[in-house]
Amino acid sequence: MKKSTSRVVIVFAHENHMFNLMGEVVRQNVTGLQWMASEAWSTSIVPQTPSYMPFLAGTLGIAIRRGEIPGLRDFLLTIRPNNKTLSSKDNNFVQQFWEATFQCRFPPSPPKWIDEGGKLCTGQENLATAETEFLEVSNLRPEYNVYKAVYAMANALHDMLRRKGLIIMSHCYELQTTVLISLPVNQLIEGHRVTIGIK
Question: Any idea where the domains of the chain sit in the sequence?
Answer without folding.
Answer: 8-61, 72-135, 142-198
